[in-house]
From TrEMBL:
InterPro entries: SUSD6, Sushi/SCR/CCP_sf, Sushi_SCR_CCP_dom
Limits of the Sushi domain: 36-98, 113-163
Protein name, per record: Sushi domain containing 6
GO annotation (BP), single: DNA damage response
UniProt keyword annotations, A-Z: Disulfide bond, Membrane, Signal, Sushi, Transmembrane, Transmembrane helix
Domain of life: Eukaryota
Coiled coil: none
Organism of derivation: Cyprinus carpio
TM segment ranges: 177-201
Disulfide bond positions: 69-96
Signal peptide: 1-35
């Protein structure tokens, strides 16, 4: 089969090198196949990235993803990650941590708010803000306050200041108060009248009693 030892060895080494080359080629192809994209990054709880293709398994090199957190959460890490040539993301996706600091709420027109504890620059967990109105204005619905809880203000209702004049007629002297005042005044007058009448009539009643008993004596 082989024409001498030398020829035989050459053929064997040729086969060897062929196998080695193909193996190297195969090995070389494998990493290049992976480097064509980055795997889908892990989901960020309470946050979102601009991953347009939702069911996509891998992202091409150079893809940029931008992350943001839900209201009440703060981004920790890098908001933008890029798919590198090595098939890895430049950074791990960021994390969204629950906030305990509240955003300063907007001040009502013709009013404002005080913070407890003061000052108002850092609104931490449990901070209470108390609303007030400028002179000549009154808070709609009476006394208003809000508490910072887990980075959010409880009771998100609208707080507003109204001019006093319109409000005063309605709340300080409401319509049902007038009949009450009137009836109280009239009953006091009536009792006073009774007392006066009693005092005035007492001597007359006594004399009438007297005369009737006298008549009784006369007739008997
Ligand atoms: C995500 O947003 C970034 C920054 O706005 C942008 O550069 C990138 O192209 C966006 N990526 C996708 C997949 O939409």
């Amino acid at each position: 089969m082989c024409n001498g030892m030398v020829a035989c060895e050459t053929r064997a080494s040729l086969a060897h090198s062929l196998a080695a080359t193909s193996l190297l080629l195969l090995l070389g192809m494998l990493p290049t196949g992976q480097a064509s994209g980055c795997p889908r990054p892990s989901v960020v709880p309470h946050g979102r990235g601009n991953l347009t293709e939702t069911n996509r398994g891998s992202f091409p090199v150079g893809t940029q993803l931008q992350y943001s957190c839900d209201p009440g959460y703060t981004l920790d890490g890098y908001s933008i990650i890029t798919c590198t040539v090595s098939g890895h993301w430049s950074y791990d996706p960021p994390r969204c941590n629950k906030n305990d600091v509240c955003q300063p709420p907007s001040e009502p027109e013709n009013g404002g708010y005080n913070c407890h504890p003061p000052p108002c620059h850092r609104l931490t967990q449990g901070t209470v803000i108390e609303y007030f109105c400028d002179e000549g204005y009154i808070l709609k619905g009476g006394y208003q306050f809000r508490t910072c809880d887990n980075g959010e203000w409880k009771s998100p209702m609208q707080i507003s200041c109204h001019p006093v004049q319109g409000e005063e007629q309605q709340s300080q002297l409401p319509m049902p108060a007038l009949p009450i005042v009137a009836s109280t005044a009239s009953s006091v007058t009536f009792i006073l009248l009774l007392v006066v009448l009693f005092v005035l009539l007492q001597p007359k009643l006594k004399s009438f009693h007297h005369t009737s008993s006298q008549t009784f004596i006369l007739f008997s």
